[in-house]
Amino acid sequence: MGRGKRGLLAAAVTVVCAVTVLAVPGTAFASVPAGPAEPSPAPSASATSAPTATSAPIPDAELEKVRAQLDGLYHDAAVATDAYNAAEEKTRKQSVQLARLKKRTDTARKKLAELKDQAGAAARAQYRDSGMPPMARFLLSDNPEHFADGAGTLLNGARATKKLITETDRVERELQRDTDDAAARWKKLERDRKDKADAQKTIKARIKDAEKLESRLEKKEKERLAELERQAARKAQTAWLDTGVLKKEADAAKATGTAAATSAGAKAVAFATAQLGKPYVWGAEGPDSFDCSGLTSQAWADAGTPIPRTSQEQWKQLPHVDVTEMRPGDLVIYFADATHVGMYVGDGKIIHAPRPGRTVTIAGAGTMPILGVVRPDA
Q: pTM to 2 decimals?
């Protein structure tokens, strides 16, 4: 290998090794696995020099290492994207709750003001007639009719006063409870916003590292790298199909009569199919771009079945089915940390939004490590 190419490879490896451990701020990152190791020393000036036109090509073995490093970077970006989407969903829900609480507290304050006005009016009424309260007038009355009238009036007044005091206490307690709840939600909203901002920084950093790594490759090497990716995908898909999964799927469908998609599943697949060719953008839910879970959640929302926004929550909350029982519309969850998802469309294939720089596409369902399958309309 020529000096220029050695410099290229050293620089490429150094870019990846220089990636810091994936940040894990707040609760939104609680389940995120640790990232790569500590940074390596910065490369020398000669190590970052551009390759010469006469340098020898990088061996496929070295390009395979670059491919694995790129996969790692984009996986870290996917982890952070799921955390970003989770934080975004939390801030959205907190904002809705805060708006409801504000409406309730405004109503309670208005009600409390009215009750206090009533209490003041009652107090003023008690001291009319030369300032003598009703109880004193009642006790000093020597007229039987006046006595009876006074007793009824006093009883009714006592009941009204007690009801007024009880209602005022209730509204004050309710107002204090909602005020405390709002304060706690504001604090959580700020934490969620910080988690979202930290995740956003991590996503951008990982994508930038990956782009920097790829930019150090020449055009022919990028083409070879893309071919290596296709070869790896074909190999993984072939190995998955060789397990007989499609035959098992067909046998299970025949036994249970559930081979075809439900009407909702067919509608979800139709939505996903209509998005083919649209770019992947982290955090996007359409209509012009999507990330992986943005595509699946919007597809099922269009089918009339709202599902969680993130692939991790889709895995946690939706009913699981065996991979041999998949039907179109089911969601295939990938990687041990459930950070990628695609929609099964039948015949061993999925539609998914792969990663930054790619578009919504059809791929083999077995091209990535399958964690499991969930069914939104189970």
A: 0.66
Contacts of 367 (CB under 8 A, 6+ apart): 233, 236, 237, 240
**pLDDT tens track for 79-114:** 999 999 998 888 888 888 778 777 777 877 777 677
**146 annotated active-site:** no
Active-site residue identified among 17, 146, 320, 340: 340
Q: Is 340 a catalytic residue?
A: yes
Task: Say how far apart CA 346 and CA 329 lie, in whole Å.
Answer: 9
Task: Compute the distance between CA of residue 298 and CA of residue 287 in angstroms, rounded to an integer.
Answer: 9
Q: Which residues contact 87 (CB under 8 A, 6 or more apart)?
A: 26, 28, 192, 193, 195, 196, 199
Residues 6+ apart with CB under 8 A from 332: 323, 326, 341, 342, 343, 344, 350, 365, 370, 372, 373
Containing 277, the helix (H) or strand (E) segment is: none
Q: What are phi and psi of 238, to 5 degrees?
A: -60, -45
Annotated catalytic, 320? no
